[in-house]
Amino acid sequence: MKTLTVELAERSYPIYIGQELLSRSELYNKHIRGKQVLIVTNTTVAPLYLETVEAALTDYTVERVILPDGEEYKTLQTLDLIMTALLEKRLDRSVTLIALGGGVIGDMTGFAAACYQRGVDFIQIPTTLLSQVDSSVGGKTAVNHPLGKNMIGAFYQPRCVIADIDTLNTLDDQQLSAGLAEVIKYGILGNRTFFEWQEAQMKNLIGREPDALSYAIERSCQDKADVVTQDERESGVRALLNLGHTFGHAIESGMGYGQWLHGEAVAVGMVMAMDLSERSGWVTKEDTQRVITLIEQANLPTKAPAELSVERMLDLMSVDKKASQGMIRFVLAKSIGETVMTSNYDKNLLVETLTACRQT
Amino acid sequence: MKTLTVELAERSYPIYIGQELLSRSELYNKHIRGKQVLIVTNTTVAPLYLETVEAALTDYTVERVILPDGEEYKTLQTLDLIMTALLEKRLDRSVTLIALGGGVIGDMTGFAAACYQRGVDFIQIPTTLLSQVDSSVGGKTAVNHPLGKNMIGAFYQPRCVIADIDTLNTLDDQQLSAGLAEVIKYGILGNRTFFEWQEAQMKNLIGREPDALSYAIERSCQDKADVVTQDERESGVRALLNLGHTFGHAIESGMGYGQWLHGEAVAVGMVMAMDLSERSGWVTKEDTQRVITLIEQANLPTKAPAELSVERMLDLMSVDKKASQGMIRFVLAKSIGETVMTSNYDKNLLVETLTACRQT
């Protein structure tokens, strides 16, 4: 087992990465301060791992909420269901929430923990590659609004993250690929060496080779933790983690949440970011092609769906929260491994990018 | 104009107290960082003060949301309306929310500011005595859940509070009295001198004498600010501010939100706290009687409604968030001006108190 620490003064917390972690009681016991636990999970994950987690929590009163599975349920209405469960079961301020599932469960449970009685403890057990490498690190919690993704939320840190690689064995191929999109992101945005390692290892990653997956998760979490430590509330450098996300959110939201996986949308968004950077004369055609090739090897899409017109994409992006004072800001690349947040690009080139990176 | 400061390191903010403040542009301009403002108010307050506030905001793009008036609208559903307005009007992270109204508007707008895009600026303009003396200080924001009051919320500080005493001229007598309940609370919980000043001044307070009101607001805000500075997130001494509130919340929730005013319920709750303290042998019969007399002079109720049985009150209080690990904890008095948070009382005496302090 590897242990990383996200350094955030009194809000610092460990990330445990390894195999057979779900059943290790001592990992939970170290981080639960009260006697009550509420496990929040969904109908897909519950039959696979709920029993194992409950068996490890012998020292506590354990309650559970099993939600429907899918991004389309990441809403204020589902948050209300968690709140109702907390209150009906009479769980008080000393309760610890455990998020058992992917990014949707993690984001929503984290936000529920941030809001319930103005803040209670929570633990993340991410069970998808996407949530292990990304959404479990950094304390961003939220639900979606019909008019925009993650528009209602809080910065709120877990007490610990338990990333058990064995849970990836039950993940389908499409979900695994979606997680790899975020792994690829960490290479492009600030770590060229890691990008090159991925070019060499993509076959092993797709083949679920444990050592390769373990290193990819560790490296991604560490890179993200380093950024979050510098800028917890995203007033500066943390915004770079949104590489591909402004484009990606528009695709997710335009298609209706749950139709495209987050990682798939981000994959296309990264291609768009590279394309716009190339058109702006900042990166070479070769760099863009290397990114496209790696994304294709990860079995991810590289073009936006034909259903979304260029006008619709522009419209959707202008409500994305990365827009500041009316201008759409993007994370663009100077090279593979070096990115900047900017609104200093030619708007005509943006239209060209949206046109070129769209299925016809 | 008086200026108090709530000292909370980088979250410190001023409270301006005085007359004719709503129209003073410079008070707003000092605290608004972007160019966009959303005023959140209700159907009662909008016709009275919205125009004055908008006229002072000439330097900004001003949008507005006018909500229905009443505690029964302090819900996740109404929060969703504010979020929809923010997104439909394309307001971004640089927006400042202005809460123009009483405690319900303040709590809900503050929570909306805490959650929108994970946190934007907000300014409080409390227009009731209750919100001027209490809910505008300390950063507690929340909405209610059908199973409990203020169960969903955040600790989130405003950029400033503008308490314009002139707005109290349009407040009805019942609302004025409800505000006085919290003023009385500050005397009982930690400031015997202030309690005695109120005994001498209650006639002037009920008569809306500006100097008396101004001093009462100032003193209450300062007393609260002193407590909040010591304990922002209520892990210790701040809990004393809940004097009368565990009982009071049960009355509000049991009767259905909006049926009893918060201040009225807290008034009864303070009588119950004194009664239980007296039965426990901690305060004298005379002290309890002085509190009852002052509450009566403020035209406030001193007994719970007959509709709520003792069993129902006990049941309602056990889900209140002041319950810890199953035991109901109360703020009880050692004397007027000295209170403690405790679960160390005889449960039979609690039943006696609930029986004695109930209308028959």
What this model shows, in words?
- 2 copies of one chain form a homodimer.
- Chain A is an alpha/beta fold and 360 residues long.
- The first copy, chain A, has helices at 25-29, 46-56, 76-88, 103-115, 129-135, 173-190, 192-206, 210-230, 245-255, 262-279, 285-297, 310-318, 347-356, and strands spanning 2-6, 13-18, 36-42, 61-67, 96-101, 121-126, 140-145, 148-155, 160-164, 330-335, 338-342.
- In chain A, helix 3 crosses helix 4 (103-115), helix 6 (173-190) crosses helix 8 and helix 10 (262-279) crosses helix 13.
- At the A-B interface, helix 3, strand 7 and strand 8 of A face helix 3, strand 7 and strand 8 of B.
